[in-house]
Amino acid sequence: MEHLLDFDWRSTLFVLGSLGAMVMIARQLEKRWPAEVNQPSSEVLTDFKLVIANAIMTWLVKPAVAISAVALVNAAGGGLFTLRADTALHFTLSLAAFLLVSDLYGYWSHRLSHMVPALWAMHSLHHSAGALTFITGARHLWLETAIVGAFFPSVAMLFKTPPEIVTTALFLGFLPNGCAHLNVRLHLGRFSTWINSPQWHRIHHSIQPEHHDKNFAAIFPIWDVIFGTAWIPGKDEFPKPGLVPGERPGVITGIIWPFRNLPVVTRAGRLLDPLFRRNGLDGPHRTAGSPKSLF
User: Which candidate among 75, 134, 176, 236 keeps its CA 20 to 30 Å from the CA of 27?
Assistant: First the structure.
């Protein structure tokens, strides 16, 4: 339990303040140039609730995840290859290698999360979003995040990476990856396959059959082009996102998402729904447009 009390409050407040500022800026951009006008406020609110709930769960299991990841990285000798950053040339080459390999790994891990049923059972929470906003990028099941972090620290096992390389890569990847879910009407035209964008990634979340399993890339769409999963969007192609059939999860189902349809869970839901509805709590397991319920 020590990690629950061992807080660096200054760093935590700085991170929370920075995230708050980014969310406010993003929301202003989404209001000024929306790809989808008049998004349902309930969908946006659901995003915030699920992100907060899963962030808490991720934090709770963080020590166990770290122990597993460190053990695997140490077993690989701390990284099979050492990236150098002692000269401008080494820094540039190392940064390029780190970005390309990390993004290629991200492409295939993302694609596998759609191909493998057990992985899709977790990843589908992210795709249940019926409206895309900046915050949707953090709408991931805590269990999915924990499993990937604990058992597949692949890039860390491959590279011994100087912190300045990691920091620079995170900074450069923020716009194409961190802002991929922005609800903004932006078309890159001939540059669409050069760098990820909200329109490119919106295709990935589309409910249209022709967009199914397209545009997996996080930073460089060239991976989609190479591996045959690219859908180059037209100028006005901004499809509606979500699952078919749609589900609008609440907090509880957002935490137990892969197990929501187990008989014991559905029975508990039927018993507890009246209690939670009387107290005005929205629920996590319902098709879009159906009455609110806890499960």
Answer: 236
